[in-house]
Design goal:
single chain; about 475 residues; mainly alpha; globular; transport
């Protein structure tokens, strides 16, 4: 590569005679070429550094999910849920490498499914590098991690491996191809024939990631039924409290760290805080954390195209969507230990609609470029209904696709008796029966695994002086512990 230094003496010598004009032109052009190559190399390095940093942030969400899941389940299932989160990443890595990435971004392809780069063959290519694969893999395993929370504490380990591989190899990649690939039939970056002249705007995945994971979890939890003790004989809801609010808070902060738009989450957290205080009479940190995450799930669709004040509206509504979905879940006797289907599915759906209502014209043009006849934007921002119609289409097709694929998978696993563990294993806890021991070390006198759960609880609340007086009234949480 030629030196970028240039002196007047060097150039003056070449311009002394007309015969040297060609040499002078070559000299100047060579330097321009050198500068251009340096700029191109620098741009490539900056782009890939930014993409890798983004991939690391998205992958950090996996740690957040792991901590959130661990804190939300009972102590006797901690090792099980932590292992499922690790294997979501591991099995998802292999399945996404072999099939998922090709189905999602294997260009050139048709609008439905990609058809190149299986096993990363002939990749990197002009369309992308390994950093792009890593970035997209991090999103794929996030969808899988959402689903694992819905079916926690009662699912056979082999079922986790099967559904996680299928989701990251086929179900999720097809959805991401539709909306994120330049070839996708509903992509806003498609070169022509945009859906309603707009395409779907789902910048960071309210529909592509959150709805996919939430709806998949919905079907898994629905088909295998609630955990033992979650509803009593009269159908009354019994709280099965997770064992560590500290881990829930830690996981929430890790997920917060990986999110770029915070106003929606903050608003949702505060709305949940005061709403639950009015509804149930106390301040609950776990509810606030879930409300915060619901705001994040909602804002990811439109975070690049809405004003900050709109993000506050998004978070406020997301909190009530989550509260409403949880109320409905109780009425339907639906059990989701992490509220994953309600949080990611419900709030993700609201986020997709929110974008169609509040997307700002200037931001839409800046992010997605101009198109002939102008870009449709938010319905309530004066942009007409075309973008909102496209967002509705996303909701319908994501719900339909995930239901048509993951529903039969979970039903088949159920029929083959591969989905749910036995009642005995569920009562004892999967850490003891499936993973060689508990996650925490107990003193012998504190270990109630060899005693009936009711006797263990009564020991805990028995008067210290050993008198035979009647035990105090049990709280709803203590009752729930006895029931399991």
């Amino acid at each position: 590569m030629a030196s970028l230094s240039c002196s007047a003496t060097d150039l003056a010598f070449l311009l002394t005679t007309a015969s040297n004009s060609t040499a002078a032109a070559n000299y100047i052009c060579t330097h321009f070429d050198s500068i251009s190559k340096r700029i191109t190399d620098t741009t490539y390095a900056i782009d890939n550094t930014y993409l890798l940093f983004s991939a690391y942030l998205v992958f950090a969400m996996q740690l957040g999910f792991a901590m959130l899941c661990a804190g939300s389940v009972r102590a006797k299932n901690t090792m099980n849920i932590m292992l499922t989160n690790v294997l979501d990443a591991a099995t998802g890595g292999i399945s996404y490498y072999l099939f998922g990435f090709a189905f999602a971004f294997g260009a050139p392809s048709n609008g439905f499914i990609g058809k190149h780069f299986f096993g990363l063959k002939k990749y990197p290519s002009p369309s992308g590098d390994y950093s792009f694969f890593l970035y997209q893999w991090a999103f794929a395993i996030a969808a899988s991690g959402i689903t694992s929370g819905s079916i926690a504490e009662r699912t056979q380990f082999v079922a986790y491996l099967i559904y996680s591989s299928f989701l990251t190899a086929f179900v999720y990649p097809i959805v991401s191809h539709w909306f994120w690939s330049a070839d996708g039939w509903a992509s806003p970056t498609r070169t022509g024939d945009l859906l309603f002249g707009s395409g779907v705007i789902d910048f960071a995945g309210s529909g592509v990631v959150h709805m996919v994971g939430g709806i998949a979890g919905l079907w898994g939890a629905f088909i295998e039924g609630p955990r033992l003790g979650r509803f009593d004989r009269s159908g009354r809801s019994v709280v099965l409290r997770g064992h560590s609010a500290s881990l829930v808070v830690l996981g929430t902060f890790l997920l917060w760290f990986a999110v770029t738009t915070t106003l929606a989450g903050c608003t949702a957290a505060l709305t949940t805080l005061f709403s639950k205080r009015l509804l149930v009479g106390h301040w609950n940190v776990v509810d606030v954390c879930n409300g915060l995450l619901g705001g994040f799930a909602a804002i990811t669709s439109g975070c690049s195209v809405v004003e900050p004040w709109a993000a506050i509206i998004c978070g406020f509504v997301a909190a009530w969507v989550l509260i409403g979905c949880n109320k409905l879940a109780v009425k339907l006797k639906y059990d989701d230990p992490l509220e994953a289907a309600q949080l990611h599915g419900g709030c993700g759906t609201w986020g997709v609609l929110f974008t169609g209502l509040f997307a700002d014209e200037a931001y839409v043009r800046e992010v997605y470029g101009e198109k002939g006849g102008g870009r449709p934007y938010g319905l309530l921002m004066g942009g007409g209904g075309r973008l909102f119609a496209a967002q509705l289409v996303e909701i319908v097709v994501v719900c339909g696709w995930v239901t048509a694929t993951m529903g039969p998978l979970f039903y088949g696993l159920h029929k083959m008796k591969l989905l749910r563990i036995s009642k005995e294993d569920e009562m004892a806890g999967m850490d003891l029966t499936r993973h060689g021991g508990f996650a925490y070390v107990y003193r012998d006198e504190d270990d109630g695994s060899s005693r009936p759960a009711a006797r263990f609880m009564m020991d805990k609340i028995e008067p210290a002086n050993g008198s035979s007086s009647s035990p105090p009234n049990l709280t709803q949480d203590q009752n729930s512990e006895i029931s399991v």
